[in-house]
Queue: 4 jobs
Job 1
Amino acid sequence: MPAGTRLDSLARSASVLCRCRQNGGFPGMERRVASSGENETRARGVLHRLLAIFAEVKPREVFSVLVLTLNVFLLLTGYYLLKVVREPLILAGGGLEIGGRRLDLDGAEVKAYAAAGQALFLVGVVRAYGALARRFGRMQLTTALTLFFAANLVLFFLLARLGVPLGVPFYLWVGCFNLTVIAQFWSFANDVYTPEQGKRLFAIVGIGSSLGAMFGAQIAKRVYVPIGPYNMMLLAAGVLLACLGLTYLVHRDDLAGSKDAADKADAPPGGAAGGFKIIARDRYLLLIAGLTLVLNWVNSTGEYILDRTLIESATSALDTGSEQRGAPDAAPAGAAPGAPLAAGAAVYLVDPQASRLLEGKIAAVKGGAFDVEAGGKVVEGAGAGLVHPRTEKGKKAALGAIIGTFKGDFFYWVNTFGVVLQLFFVSRIFKYLGVRFALFILPAIALLGYASLAVLPALAVVRVAKIAENSADYSIQNTARQALFLPVGRAAKYSAKAAIDTFVVRAGDVLAAGGVIAGQVLALSTRHFAMVNIALALVWLGVVAGIAREHRRRAADEPAASADLEAA
């Protein structure tokens, strides 16, 4: 080929290459790259539009808000698995042993006193957390806490297999776990987002919290009998490890955002002063602590009212039957829950629909089910989990089944309504009425609910009142309370918030337990306890009014965030 021809050919090839480069590459490659980019953009666009239904989300925030939402969903799922395990262990067990001496207390009283004991335990926890927060970065802190609690669950499982009583210790532990791990999650979220972002995005993250609580309660209700409470502990430990991985993804995404974010993430979040000192020096934080104290005082007293009413309702048929027939029939010697039962055996029958126990006898055995004569009729095909030998141990097992079923159903409805509120109301309340208005909603609901209980303290009324109170607490109140920490400093977000979310919460339980003790001495009825909560709800409204004034003042003192906070 002549030299000129070769040069012309090379020139044409170079021209083609130049045009390809100018046009973004070779035609086929361009189509493939464009297709891949379009798919990714389309997927992000769909997620962005979906999230926009619930709140204003910017494209850069889609990943972090979705992963945080999934993270808190799993955290609450695991917590509700443990919460449903906790209730039968402490309520059905009753009694309390101290130094080898058994105290004659019912399960509701033991639960109230154990909740008070958590406050003393958490004083040490707050100090230890503060020391860790002053030494380690946020990811190291989160990793240490998560692995610690996951290992604890494995230890509880092993102790249960050895027959060690777990009612009170596990109750204390679950309270510490709930407050510490979930408080750490929200501290992390407050650290990742600015006040402006948090106001927009916390409503979406809260959806994961509400959905996780609902899902966990429903799963616990379905698996409690098939796999047992102790295997549920291992399931929750696995969930915790998954949450740790999700936290790392958000941490890494935040680091990629800017150098300032990386510097902040590596710096220990705790300040030089401890959490209690930070609170004492800040009127705004003191008011938040007061809000948390009264909120949990009211809530814990309400939980005692619910538990006491449930146990009284569950055993009311037994008391009536004993009065009518005299002493109950003795169970066969050596009978125990889960042991083979024959026709004619005296049993307790669980009536989950009415949340009560019935005394009866087995009329017939049909494979793994029983026909039981109880309450003047024959109940056919009762499952093994609903029929227990009429022994003291059998009574506890049957009562545990009632409590577990009732609480699983109760938590399900609490969280179903909580999800509805979180999905369709919280972001709109924040946007149009503001955070300050949102804080008034729960005390108003509590005031109305306990006024109803003072008039008619029946189980059905208590159930409805507590479902309304707890669903608003877990959605509107929780999101609003977390948003209160957005305009505070980083040390307050970790150390002070940890102190409030652990010790102050349990201090409210101490006051509630003191009320229970006083109520036992004075022989107060559930109606009287409802009246106490009416008075506390009025105090609660006063504290919220103080927070609203301080929040407005703080917004005015911070020009950079003034417009955003004032809108809240």
Note: The two ends are 79 Å apart (CA to CA).
Job 2
Amino acid sequence: MAASRSCTLRFMILFSIASFLYQSCYSFLSPPSSIINPSKVKQVSWKPRAFVYEGFLTDLECDHLISLAKSELKRSAVADNVSGKSKLSEVRTSSGMFISKAKDPIVAGIEDKISTWTFLPKENGEDIQVLRYEHGQKYDPHYDYFVDKVNIARGGHRTATVLMYLTNVTKGGETVFPEAEIRYMLIDDKWDKLPNTESSLHTTPAKDDLSDCAKKGIAVKPRRGDALLFFSLHPNAIPDPSSLHAGCPVTEGEKWSATKWIHVDSFDKNLAAGDNCMDSNESCERWAVLGECSKNPEYMIGSPELPGYCRRSCKLKAICSYMVIVVNLLCGGYKPLQRSVRRLCLYALSLILKLYE
């Protein structure tokens, strides 16, 4: 009887230990919740559209990203405006590395949270880049959208950026928007509204703990776990000049951050070489029929420097229009056809071209 009780007790103890270890490992390895709490999001600016999510990352997630990056850091580079190739520059003096989206469950969970918050597909995002800024290191004012053909060819422009702060910074290291219209600023660990006047744009809060760099516009102080979301393009996909931003020099302490750049199209698929005469949206044919090729040519067709996203449908629309003119002229004068006939023409041409793809 005593032996039986002793065995049962040992079993219960071992079972309790196993259960505890399982729960601990599960909580560590399982993806964090992708549920977003809107009450933690504050609009910082409308020009550009910028928002801060307080406590977006947990301490565990912050530490995990830093631990993955520490041994892999390399000097950060910038994209050449002409060739699109990466190059070293004194404009950007941090060090960093990229973490693949499926690196582990924790990273995958962060990817899920970013997609849920931004309402943008995960496939449109680049891998998370973890950055370390030591004393004096910074990133001068720049845009996140590209001006070269090489980088735009894959996924199009960067439309949004999520900047996650992994550590607190004693002094400096703010993210500043020199061309922004101020709405809120972090003062004494609270987001306070500032008057939206020209005179207030470069003024300093009553209790000033901002660096000189941060006083040049709206500034977001790095606070562990917080995330800054801002858009580099207007809703019509035109670059927004007010999205100019900089990473202020770290004057005391060290700054760790993680950046997620999100494109207008999938970044995971490589576009084929050539003139990129293809559609990047399933609604392109419908938009072309509704006249968007002429109403919104920047997005639909693009330019020699900036490829559009519905070039194939717009080319078909042009061919269809020419055929309508020719047919009507041959039949005794130009008579505009009904929209349904134009749609049928466009659809027929689409089927014909698909046969030759």
Note: The first helix runs from residue 2 to 29.
Job 3
Amino acid sequence: MLQEWSKLLAPAVQDRITLLLNHVMSREPVATARLAPHTGKTLRLRLAGWPAMLPAAPDLRLRVTPAGLLERMGDEDAPRQEADLLIELDASNPAAAAFAALSGARPDVRVQGDAQLAGDFNWLIDHVRWDIEDDLAAITGPAVAHQLGRFGRAAATAMATLARTAGRFMPDGQGRA
């Protein structure tokens, strides 16, 4: 039953991830300018080392738009050919990876495929970060957003430490975080 829910929820979750990526990139004009020349090229985001006890995580297939943003390719859109760029994220400890991403750490990523697209994508990974405080400031005002940001960073750091520690007790016994 969990597998059925996973198949139903995966496209919706992937759509939200795509929206978040586009939101973050649209705040940085240089990011969209770097991707725009790659219009029509495809990317495949794969979670490597995903824990077997969790439902399988499907690959996220994306296409670069003329605006330098990304659009999710559904099963009907995605040809069975290889993507121009394969991006593998280490997901052996999903909790630690999520908290590291929230704290602004560079994810453990392996990229292969089109060299120019890989170079531009690596640049995005190194230089583009989500400014959560800026988004919160539009809702709450800058002072409250700053305080929430400080609290969020402290909580993310504590949770990342907890996740790394808990990762040592995962069934694989390797303690990767």
Note: Residues 2-131 form a domain with the Nonspecific Lipid-transfer Protein; Chain A fold (CATH 3.30.1050).
Job 4
Amino acid sequence: MGTSCPSGFSPDQARSGMYKLEIEVKRGHNLAVRDRGGTSDPYVKFKLAGKEVFRSKIIHKNLNPVWDEKTTLIIDSLNEPLYVKVFDYDFGLQDDFMGSAFLYLESLEHCVCVCVCVAQQQQSIRLSELHRKAQLWRGIVSIALIEGRNLMPMDPNGLSDPYVKFRLGPQKYKSKTLSPQWREQFDLHLYEETGGVLDITVWDKDTGRRDDFIGRYQLDLSTLAKEQTHHLELPLEESRGFVVLLVTLTASAAVSIADLSVTPLDDPQERREILQRYSFFNLKDVGIVQVKVMRAEGLMAADVTGKSDPFCVLELNNDRLQTHTVYKNLNPEWNKVFTFNVKDIHSVLEVTVFDEDRDRSADFLGKVAIPLLNVRNGEQKGYLLKNKELTAPTKGCIYLEIDVIYNAVKAALRTVVPAEQKYIEEEPKVSKQLLQQNFNRVKRCIMVLISWGTFINSSRMHTHTHISLVMLFCFLLAVCGGGSMDGMFEWEVDEDDKEEKDSEPKGFMDKLYAIQDVFISVQNALDEVASFGERVKNTFNWTVPFLSWLAITALCLATFLLYLIPLRYLVLAWGVNKFTKKLRDPYMIDNNELLDFLSRVPSDVQVMQYHELKVDPGQSPSKRRRTNLS
């Protein structure tokens, strides 16, 4: 490990000031066996003053692991020793302790390397986790996961259910499907401190037990040219087979965290430059959002002392930044300015308030979700905090000022491409209440269809003569005025191949996991069906005016094209485009523009989650203080 301090400072002076500690985890040698297979899955944890400050990656099935990871810590005291612990990772169980050592920072010489040995000890250690603060990124790594080739079969039937995990510093991504034709696209942030090594691992999904490791590859991003798309066929180490990727490195307008005294949009000259950057004449970027986090009032007391140590986390899709912690305060003032790049104007800004705990994970205090299209620029507003599900209010209010500048044309074009998926998502769980809720939502959609069917039937039976005549006229106009467009939508029915059942009978836990998977599948299917119907309804209800106007504009353009160009030519052009996509770009990720458009329309559940609760001025602590003083 190496350390460094400002030149000209003695060790005594450095102990009382800021100090930079550089740690490099090299490797382990002859570590203890903790798994039944005679190996271990070791990783290293570093703790300082009772807090976890760094955790290495996991090296699977290796007693002589090589990590080669670096991290840099800023500390203000050398009195606290650095506690180094080695664990064996166990999926779903408590990790096994392998050894530990104390490193006393006062004993280190400045700017030299020191080797530290971790000795084996037999003791019981209680694991603790701590929220790691987000960092600012300097670039974006765009990855298109295409397919796997010649992967090793891991199941008794000679097949596998492969998925891929990506890790770049603290970021992780897991592919969504088990087919080797993944066709998924996602972006990762490239940080200054975490280096540029992309760790790729391939796993075989096994229900009810630990997933099988197939292979891995570590890609050094520094060897790739920037602003170019690289087609890579990566051979897996410790296994056979390849993973096919498309990787693009792009520079990013860096996100920023600043005080209120340094606000980009408050400077008239800088504001004009930003407005020009996102004008109609520049279609490169969608936009920018600036968030001023002022303060919070009346927060929940999470500590036994009746106070809290609150900090605020801001998330926009997969971009995550956070404020500093204000200790022992229920009415904290942060006064920070955060700047994000907007990739999709339909994104939702999530602001969550946590209570920092030294010995365990942070406690949830409240949350609010704000769609960017609902923002009123330059208006400082108080938002009542809600619970984790955003369904009911909780204690406290947070004051924000948000400015959004975006290119309307670019935002409209991005509406008909697949939306960015969040990498960190909670695993779905079986919930009787959620299952009943989704069933009722589907039932309401079906009742709407039944009411429409009843209306059409009543018009056919001439219950209302004038309505029947109007519908007859529309029917004749549609039949005589033009041809039908058959095959406008492609309905793909995935028929699962019937696989032979294993000769071995399934155990009780396997059956239990299978039943749980069935319930989760039914629960998710009901949610998708209900959400689709609600999104169609909300499009016509003008729930999001931007999307409704966009739909009207698209219909007007389609009408104008039909007036100028015969229908058969448009159908021919559409068909040629659809059928030649794979020829023009074999690695393209197919999408449906109509479904991508509807995915931007919120469902009824999301409308309720995004609903802004009104703040009662009389309940504000600052208001009460002013009243008491008067």
Note: The two ends are 60 Å apart (CA to CA).
